[in-house]
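User: Please fill in residues for this 157-position structure.
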């Protein structure tokens, strides 16, 4: 068998469908997305993994190119120029978290957007259960606000 065929065999083995041990294989189809984020006078072209519902999902942010006023510059030059009297590691983390925030907004926020429909109740309830949050938290954070939204009462928080 080829490597791929063997993995496929392991995934589909009937004993593998029963969780009998902590060892298991998870098959993920990973798609990359490209995005552009503006930071001061720079345009950062980067890519990340499209969100999937795996417990082991990672965004995997990768800067592909930086442009300063339209001209490509090396990433290390951008980090040096954007440093603003911080340590280089602090600058790198700052840029990474800005790009991660952007990816989260594009990939995850639409999933949790409140549309004021009754079916939103079930989506949110399932997410709270998946995260192991108490039902009282669901009632306070979602059910009451959804009920008020349906009555036409808007809320600020």
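Assistant: Residues filled in for all 157 positions:
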């Amino acid at each position: 068998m080829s490597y791929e065929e063997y993995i496929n065999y392991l995934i589909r083995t009937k004993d593998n469908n029963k969780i009998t041990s902590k060892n298991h294989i998870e098959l993920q189809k990973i798609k990359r997305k490209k995005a552009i984020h503006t930071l001061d006078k720079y345009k950062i072209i980067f890519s990340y993994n499209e969100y999937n519902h795996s417990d082991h999902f990672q965004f995997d942010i990768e800067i592909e190119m930086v442009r300063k006023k339209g001209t490509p510059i090396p990433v290390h030059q951008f980090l040096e120029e954007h440093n603003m009297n911080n340590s280089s590691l602090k600058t790198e983390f700052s840029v990474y978290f800005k790009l991660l925030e952007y990816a989260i907004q594009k990939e995850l926020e639409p999933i949790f957007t409140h549309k004021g429909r009754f079916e939103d109740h079930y989506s949110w309830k399932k997410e709270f259960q998946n995260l192991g949050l108490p039902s009282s938290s669901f009632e306070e954070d979602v059910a009451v606000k959804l009920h008020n939204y349906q009555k036409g009462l808007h809320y600020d928080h």
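For context: The helical segments are 3-12, 14-17, 75-81, 88-107, 109-112, 119-130, 135-150.
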